[in-house]
Amino acid sequence: MRRTFVLLLLGTAVLLVVTDRWLLPLTSLRAAGAAVYGAAEGAAGTVTRSFGGDGRLRELELENAALRAELLSTGARSVSAPPRGVSASRGVAAYVVGFGRGQRVTVDAGSGSGVVRDVTVLNADGLVGKVTWAGAGTASVSLITDAASSVGVRMAGSGELGVVTGLPGEGLLRLSLFDPDAPLRAGDQVETLGSAGGRPYVAGVPVGAVTTIERVPGAATRTALVRPAARLSALGLVTVIVPEPER
């Protein structure tokens, strides 16, 4: 009986995957699943932490994460009075609850907490990635090491501009500076340049440090390898920078 049930469950799962990928996208079903998964994960986490006696610790962690994100994303300026061209924002703290295909993770905060697509995700160490999909209770985050990731950056010391792209197989980033003669050495710090309106990336968030200078004679750009500041293989508490609702 149990074997029959398992086979039926697996068959149903395969059918849904095939239907979603090749026949009819199941967007509404995926959203409903995300809501159920998020609620279940949150409930399980709450029960576990309650029995462990660290419910208050979680609250403090979330508060600290939100405050840290506010400072990183606004340069210690007031969120209620952002510079011209930068939208007001706030931090929504969340826990990574799953690792998906490729360089993607799932967090336990979604549209119900104000999370939307194309916003910055960071942790205590630096940039993690950006939100690529948001359900009611969970969201999908593409890490900066994803092969499709491209982030505008500035060198913390020299101010030189460039871009970093993901190298998923190595867990590193490739830095390309626009000036092929720009000064560059191992240990130099890289931070986000910032996008228009702060989406998908806010300015001034640590990205990583240069580890290796690449020598390519005649290249139009100066390139190097960068190790991410955030430990992307062991993510826990993160913060999503979301726009403040208009009043």
From TrEMBL:
GO terms for cellular component: plasma membrane. The keyword Metal-binding does not apply. InterPro entries: Cell/Rod_1 (IPR042177), Cell/Rod_MreC_2 (IPR042175), MreC (IPR007221), MreC_beta-barrel_core (IPR055342). It holds the Pfam family MreC. Belongs to the MreC family. One of its GO terms (biological process) is regulation of cell shape. This is Cell shape-determining protein MreC. It comes from Nonomuraea fuscirosea. The keyword Phosphoprotein does not apply. Residues 103-241 form the Rod shape-determining protein MreC beta-barrel core domain. Keywords: Cell shape.
